[in-house]
């Protein structure tokens, strides 16, 4: 049975499951940011437990295929080395799960932080959608909106 699961979850299948799997979390963040469902299901550890499990499975698959983990440190050498790393599907998928996880965490933080300042949920949907698509830009747009609601600029809050 474990071998069947292992054979089913190819890199391509994991890619589809991760991309489709985070959509419900993002839809809840955007449309129901103040609901208990969002509080206990999306902004909790639950989605990161699932994404971490996918990441560990990818590490396991990479280990079994004799992936060169030491070569990952080449990404700090130069841009050409990064492009070489991204040519490997295992590394690309591990990066993608990492990217999806960080964006979802950021979206959850935006929702939690916006509740402190009672930011309008329709206005909040703009930086959340942008965070889903472009991560840091959505966080920056949220920060600009937050300035007006908090009525001060805080660089370390």
Produce a short descriptive summary.
This protein has 157 residues and is mainly α. The protein has one domain. The protein is built from 8 helices and no strands.
Task: Describe the model.
The protein is globular. The chain has helices at 2-8, 11-31, 36-42, 46-64, 79-86, 89-116, 121-134, 136-150. With 157 residues, it is mostly helical. The chain has one domain (2-150). The model has no long low-confidence stretch (mean pLDDT 88).
Give a topology summary.
Blueprint: H1 2-8, H2 11-31, H3 36-42, H4 46-64, H5 79-86, H6 89-116, H7 121-134, H8 136-150
Helix pairs in contact: 2-3, 2-4, 2-6, 2-7, 4-6, 6-7, 6-8, 7-8
Count of beta strands: 0
Helix/strand order: HHHHHHHH
* Helix-and-strand structural type: mainly alpha
Distance between the termini: 49 Å
What is the overall shape?
A: globular
Q: Give the low-confidence spans.
A: none
Describe the largest sheet: none
Cα-atom radius of gyration: 18 Å
Figure out the total of helices. Answer: 8
Q: What is the count of structural domains? A: 1
Properties at a glance:
mainly alpha, 8 helices
